[in-house]
Write a structure and sequence with these properties.
By secondary structure, this protein is α/β, with parallel strands linked by helices. It has a domain of 166 residues: HUPs (Rossmann fold, 3-Layer(aba) Sandwich), CATH 3.40.50.620. It contains seven helices and six strands; from the N terminus they run ααβαβαβααβββα. It has a six-stranded mixed sheet. α2 crosses α3, α3 crosses α7 and α5 packs antiparallel against α6. It is globular and about 50 Å long. 39% of the residues are buried. The protein binds iron/sulfur cluster. Iron/sulfur cluster binds next to α6.
Length: 250
Amino acid sequence: MRENRDLLDTWEADDVVQRFASDPAEELIAWALEQWGTRIALCTSFQAEGMVILDMAHRIDPKVRVFTVDTGRLPQETYDIMERVRELYHIEVELFFPDPRQVEAMVRGDGPNLFYKSVEARMWCCHVRKVEPMRRALDGLGAWITGLRRDQSASRATINKAELDAEHGGLMKLNPLCDWTSEQVWDYIDTYDVPTHRLYQRGYTSIGCAPCTRPTQPGDDARAGRWWWEQNAVKECGIHGLGTARRCDI
Ligand code: SF4
């Protein structure tokens, strides 16, 4: 195991992609946990994919680090599954919160429901409540693991199993499930009896903050229920570098 915050370069990232191209997701996770030790952490919002990654990683190393961002606008069901995870896996979930001064200034100035006013306002809220705490969560890590999949949306269609995360200083971002289908995710959950978020039972196919997420209809894009009032906007919050977060002036 390396001793310092070790960042791989583009060649090494490509090598990881080639090396694990056709291997099971567990192989990449096991290699990464060995490679980075306590300087790798798994990011989850407790959706189905995040739960699969968490379950896989916990089977490999019960001390795996798990973190999440609590935006302050999450649905109660997210806190419920967070508690379930803490009890079932006996892990500490590292919680990162937005800067209260930034939230206070934003809500005082733009209102509690600013996200409905414009795409820019929504992206600013995502920046304050998600992107900035995520930046702190990743600070000092050499790598992080996500549950992103290519077929979740057009904006995720080209993600790789390993990529350099330029948005966060060039650390390694691993997406072991990037080539999985939704069916594979739910098969794993059934096989290993992994707990799931209760909102799936109410027609949600992607789950984020309560005021910005709703159930989808059959045939919809999996992320169609996120920021559903926006037309032609990228359905991303900026955490994964797939959207654009900037200060809005509403
Ligand atoms: Fe704000 Fe909605 Fe983004 Fe949550 S999803 S951070 S409430 S805009």
